[in-house]
Design brief:
Length: 167
């Protein structure tokens, strides 16, 4: 908790230096599942003066969708927004009627790594078990129209893009 609060203080300091006047903090998968989340949220509020709202996976997915859909680059087309987090994955897509469907599953990159990938290098059986779990998740997603544009956001997608670009 101390390390996390130190990081939050560092971010708040940067915000002050940059003249940020409004800060909203949302707790996602890790805080949704933490037994001591109330203790953490209270400590952050006392030490940093920042209120953290722990949001549901559905709300997290919806906010991600809004962040992308309100960007002029993406606003004129049907979207599928995907955020693969450490503990959960959220995604939205617009169906044929234009309604936004919202999903959240407790399956993320850190969770999968800790649950399945215990060897270094990774053993084929570990990889196959993890891939099977991911396929089960993908099987729960209703079909998406061919005209839907996928947009990935968040740390996992950014890290994969950086690897692809050779950064």
């Amino acid at each position: 908790m101390k390390k996390s609060i130190d990081v939050i203080e560092g971010y708040l300091s940067i915000c002050r230096e940059k003249g940020v006047t409004e800060i909203v903090a949302a707790g996602t998968s890790a805080l949704r599942e933490a037994r001591n989340r109330l203790n953490f949220v209270q400590r952050v509020r006392r030490r940093c003066g920042l209120k953290i709202e722990v949001i549901s996976g559905q709300e997290e997915a919806w906010l991600s969708h809004l962040a992308v859909a309100r960007d002029q680059k993406w606003s004129s087309r049907p979207l599928m927004v995907i955020d693969i987090g450490g503990g959960s994955t959220e995604w939205t897509y617009e169906d044929a009627s234009g309604e936004v469907r919202v999903f959240s599953k407790s399956i993320g990159s850190v969770r999968l790594t800790e649950q399945f990938l215990t060897s270094d290098p990774v053993q084929e059986r570990e990889y196959q078990a993890m891939a099977s779990q991911v396929r089960k998740l993908l099987d729960t997603i209703p079909p998406v129209g061919a005209d839907v544009t996928p947009v990935g956001i968040g740390g996992t997608i950014t890290a994969l893009y950086s690897v692809k670009q050779g950064y």
